[in-house]
Q: What sequence folds into this?
């Protein structure tokens, strides 16, 4: 996709989804980190239903690090992989308390040293919690960006690198949110709503399928 078309696509998506942004409810960087870890392979809405009780009982790394794992499981049991996530958020809280003075670290390397924290989670925390320009590639971003032609990659890391080259650096975080919203509202995995898509004239997928139908 040409540079001017990339900018145009972002502008159209911004106009279409003016509310695009982080959908997780959190009050500080610690809560953000925990919420993002919990959101893996489940919806932000589901996470927002369990975190108020979780954070009221365990508001900081020290308290969550010493929590009973069974109790944490019970609080978050309505979300996917709740047993593994309970174990991870307790362990990462312990590491925050012991190695980072109870503070969420602000580098990719340090964040990824925490249990249950990968590259996508780190990018979200750095973008939302520290105000850095980052592109976190989740399933929506991966699907939409490769489908429309912002990237042409087979894996998440290559897609992130391709998007960083294609998208102006001052719009990385914005693009992340816009692509997620577009993936949820229009460009779904099984039945994308191509006919009503506001960027279909720029989309490789739409052009290819329109040619096949004709």
A:
């Amino acid at each position: 996709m040409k540079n001017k078309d990339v900018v145009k696509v972002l502008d159209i998506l911004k106009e279409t989804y003016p509310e695009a942004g982080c959908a997780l409810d959190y009050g500080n960087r610690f809560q953000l980190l925990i919420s993002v870890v919990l959101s893996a392979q489940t919806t932000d809405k589901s996470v927002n239903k369990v975190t108020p009780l979780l954070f009221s009982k365990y508001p900081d790394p020290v308290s969550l690090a010493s929590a009973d794992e069974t109790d944490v499981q019970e609080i978050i049991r309505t979300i996917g992989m709740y047993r593994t996530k309970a174990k991870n958020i307790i362990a990462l809280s312990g590491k925050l308390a012991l190695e980072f003075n109870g503070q969420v670290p602000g580098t990719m390397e340090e964040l990824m040293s925490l249990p249950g924290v990968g590259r996508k989670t780190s990018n979200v925390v750095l973008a939302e919690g520290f105000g850095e320009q980052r592109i976190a590639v989740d399933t929506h971003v991966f699907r939409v960006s490769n489908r429309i032609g912002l990237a042409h990659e087979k894996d998440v890391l290559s897609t992130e690198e391709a998007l960083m080259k294609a998208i102006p650096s001052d719009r990385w975080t914005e693009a992340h949110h816009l692509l997620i919203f577009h993936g949820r509202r229009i460009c779904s995995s099984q039945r994308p709503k191509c006919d009503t898509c506001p960027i279909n004239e720029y989309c490789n997928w739409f052009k290819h399928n329109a040619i096949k139908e004709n």
Q: What stands out?
A: The chain has a mean pLDDT of 95. The longest helix spans residues 82-99.
